[in-house]
Write a structure and sequence with these properties.
CATH topology of the largest domain: Spore Coat Polysaccharide Biosynthesis Protein SpsA, Chain A
Number of strands: 11
Number of helices: 11
Shape: elongated
CATH architecture of the largest domain: Alpha-Beta Complex
Radius of gyration: 22 Å
Order of helices and strands: EHEHEEHEEHHEHHEEHHHHEE
Number of domains: 2
Length: about 325
């Protein structure tokens, strides 16, 4: 398989040293399978957002029967591509998309990513997603392996060039064409650190969350309320009652309320342990769940505001509203 592998790295008009670093790596490795492209400017008479234009350019050059789209922050484990291809061939899958193990680096990731993983795990029904008869769709943009014939049949990234959450839209087209989608966990395939800074995490999730919920305002607000109620409210209640009691004295009712709040806080640890079973994110910093819940709530509300108004709605510094 090694001789048949092609790796195309597309620099999408970046303003940092991405292209120079990729070209330097190409020279150092001297491996003919690795090709680096300086992406062309986006057509001015068409709407292109996100990575869609870069993916279109890569596909025009690639010659394989399978197309694996990876984000630059995915780290594949040895044998990952062979394992994925064998699974796709054996199960006759047209699109395989999966969650690599999420890696948390900065504090913002430790606060938000485990809770977001828990929300997704609770809300996603993989059996429905993978049922050809169900309209439920989901996809994970950092890892999407297409059978080329299926990719071309749905029109590829060209067909979703103006879509911000292009991965879900591609999965929707796959199911609409009667093709086979498989979405699941891919911990054995690789790892992914989505956002190296708090600012990047805020920009990324506020870009995707509301659209990923198909702009269902009621559902999105319910999610924000639930995460705040479970994660943050017990901490606020305990702190507020302790401050009130220290200033005016504790009543028996205060004691009962504090005990209930502390019991809810202690329950957050087994919840984080359960999330770790699915996401492979350790329950580290679980005692900051109150802060994490407030942060995720702000992300969800911010995503609604940004998507509906266009105010501050960007990706990699590029405005998305009216793009």
């Amino acid at each position: 398989m090694g001789r048949q592998l092609e790796v195309w790295v597309v620099d999408d008009q970046s303003t940092d040293n991405t292209l120079a670093i990729a070209q330097s790596l190409q020279v150092t490795l001297a491996d003919p399978r690795l090709q680096v492209m300086a992406g062309k400017p986006r057509p001015t008479d068409e709407i292109w957002v996100g990575k869609n234009w870069a993916c279109v350019q890569a596909v025009q050059q690639a010659s394989g029967d399978f197309l694996l789209f990876l984000d630059a922050d995915v780290r594949l484990k040895p044998g990952a591509i062979s394992t994925a291809l064998e699974f796709v061939q054996r199960s006759q899958i047209d699109l395989l998309t999966c969650w690599p193990t999420l890696i948390c680096g900065c504090l913002a990731e430790w606060l938000a990513q485990p809770l977001i993983a828990g929300i997704l795990a609770a809300g996603l029904d993989f059996a429905q997603i993978n049922d050809p008869q169900s309209e439920t769709v989901f996809a994970v943009g950092p890892f999407m392996l297409f059978r080329r014939t299926a990719y071309e049949q749905i029109g590829g990234h060209q067909a979703v060039g103006n879509q911000v959450v292009e991965d879900v839209e591609l999965a929707r087209l796959i199911k609409q064409k009667g093709l086979t989608l498989h979405c699941g966990l891919g911990h054995e395939l690789g790892t992914l650190q989505m956002y190296p800074t708090g600012a990047a995490l805020w920009e990324g999730w506020t870009k995707n969350w509301y659209l990923g919920s198909q702009r269902k305002l009621g559902l999105t607000l319910q999610t924000a309320l639930l995460i705040f109620w479970i994660c943050t409210l017990p901490w606020l209640a305990a702190i507020g009652l302790l401050i009130k009691g220290s200033l005016t004295g504790f009543t028996p009712l205060d004691g009962i309320a504090i005990a209930l709040a502390l019991a809810n806080i202690l329950l957050q640890y087994p919840i984080r342990r359960a999330i770790a079973q699915l996401s492979a994110i350790p329950p580290r910093y679980w005692w900051l769940t109150g802060m994490g819940g407030a942060f995720v709530t702000a992300i969800i509300l911010g995503s609604i505001i940004k998507t509906e108004t266009g105010w501050g709605w960007t990706w990699r510094g590029r405005p998305l509203k009216g793009a």
